[in-house]
Amino acid sequence: PTRTVASRIAIDLKIFQTIASDGGCPKTNEQLAVVTGASPKLVQRITRMCASTNMLNEIGPGLYTPNALTRLLAQPQYAASIVFCFDCTQKSYADMPAYIRKIGFQNPENAVDGPFQYANNHVGHAFTWAAAHPEVFQAFHMYMHALRSHRPSWTDMYPVQERLITGLASEGDASALIDIGGGTGQTLEDFIKSTPQYTGKLVLQDLDEVISAAKSMGIGDNKRVELQVHDFFTEQPVKGARAYFLQWVLHDWPDEQCRKILGHLKDAMKPGYSKILIGEYVLSDHNAAWQHLSLDIYMLALASAQERTKTEWYKLIESCGLKIAGIYSKGDGNESVIEVVCEEDVSQ
Ligand SMILES: C[S@@+](CC[C@H](N)C(=O)[O-])C[C@H]1O[C@@H](n2cnc3c(N)ncnc32)[C@H](O)[C@@H]1O
């Protein structure tokens, strides 16, 4: 918590961007304090803490220069990751031990009545809380954009040509790849660049406020991506698409809601042709990667949700009457792509 709170205050004090400015020339606490009129003593306490965790360099007593991480955190989309993760979940972390004691040490499994609601006195899902807090909401989408630009793309692990493009219908809904809960379009934008040979329709689906944010960011202006407001707890309007893509969506929800989301996709799929592609962590059953476990606790605090092991993914998918056709991965600590087909697609 000390590292996180110091970095969150450093963002408000504009410490990273100031240290990175003017070609990164060395700066004192007094110079850094002028930017926001802060107390130099407070700035010193925050900068030296950030230096101790390599967010910046301390080259002499109270004298700072930027390193690669400082330069990243100086950019609004990277600073947004700290703003979102702190502002949205810190209260949940702080109150989670009390909440867990209160519920008799059970595993929280209700997306709208868990640690987040307890800590924030909120009725509804964490997403509705975020949507009602414009700065947090904006930070969330900036964070998702920044995050995606640093991770292997799903197309680096999944054989798109062999599994999607071969046999692709030339037009209409059957040619579609739909990014469901796709945020402000970061993944589809990357897909257009990395896979220009996919000539089918591309659809971005998300909630009203997110699609509006995507529009204001210019997504869809090139006419390549169709923007569609869609609540994934309702009937999927695009039937028989080539691929229904869900990246970092199911980890936001307990199993019960995941079954509803997947059920609507199952109803829309054309057996022998449509696939659901799930971009998520697949945890090892033994000695799982720390990145996976860290996000698991984060999802608990945010949404009474979870990361899933391979065994849990099979159980969830099969409980929906669907089948996992393959899991494609790229290295420990990264996401995987889980290809899901209709139960009857034995040869897929
Ligand atoms: C963790 S983000 C993932 C965004 C994107 N898929 C990615 O990987 O960058 C989850 C997304 O699900 C969306 N979402 C939440 N509830 C939804 C619902 N009921 N229907 C559609 N989208 C929803 C959120 O708005 C958010 O964009």
In the CATH scheme, the class of the largest domain would be Alpha Beta
CATH architecture of the largest domain: 3-Layer(aba) Sandwich
Overall number of structural domains? 3
Cofactors, ions, other ligands: S-adenosylmethionine
Strand residue percentage = 15-25%
Low-confidence stretches: none
Rg on CA atoms, Å: 22 Å
Question: For the report, how would you describe the main beta sheet?
Answer: 7 strands, mixed
Tally the beta strands.
12
What is the ordering of alpha helices and beta strands? HHEHHEEHHHHHHHEHEHEEHEEHEHEE
By helix and strand content, what is the structural category? alpha/beta
Spatial strand sequence of the major β-sheet: 6-5-4-7-8-12-11
The 3D shape can be described as globular
- The CA-CA distance between the termini, in Å, is 47 Å
- Going by CATH, what is the homologous superfamily of the largest domain? Vaccinia Virus protein VP39
CATH topology of the largest domain: Rossmann fold
Pfam families: Dimerisation, Methyltransf_2
Organism: Periconia macrospinosa
Protein name: Putative O-methyltransferase
Domain O-methyltransferase C-terminal: 175-321
